[in-house]
Amino acid sequence: MSEPATNLPKRRLRLPTRLINVSWRDLAVVALPTALIVAGAFAIAGHFIRPAPPHTIVMTTGTDGSSFRRYAERYAKILARDGITLQMLPSSGSVENLKRLADPKQHVDVGFVQGGLPEELHGADLVSLGSMFYQPLFVLYRSPEPIARLSQLKGKLIAIGREGSGTEALALALLKANGFETEKDPALLRINGDDATPSILAGRIDAAFLSGDSARPDEIRQLLHTAGLRLFDFAQADAYLQRFRYLNKIALPEGVLDLGVDIPARPIALLAPTVELVARADLHPALSDLLIDAAQEVHGHGSLLARAGEFPSPVERDFPISDDATRYYKAGKSFVYRHLPFWLANLADRLLVLVVPAVVLLIPALRMVPTMYTWRIRTRIFRHYGQLMELERESLRPQSPEHVRRMLAQIDQLEGAVIKSKLPKRFGDEAYVLRQHIDFVRERLTGMAAAQPVQ
Question: Is 16 among the domain residues?
Answer without folding.
Answer: no
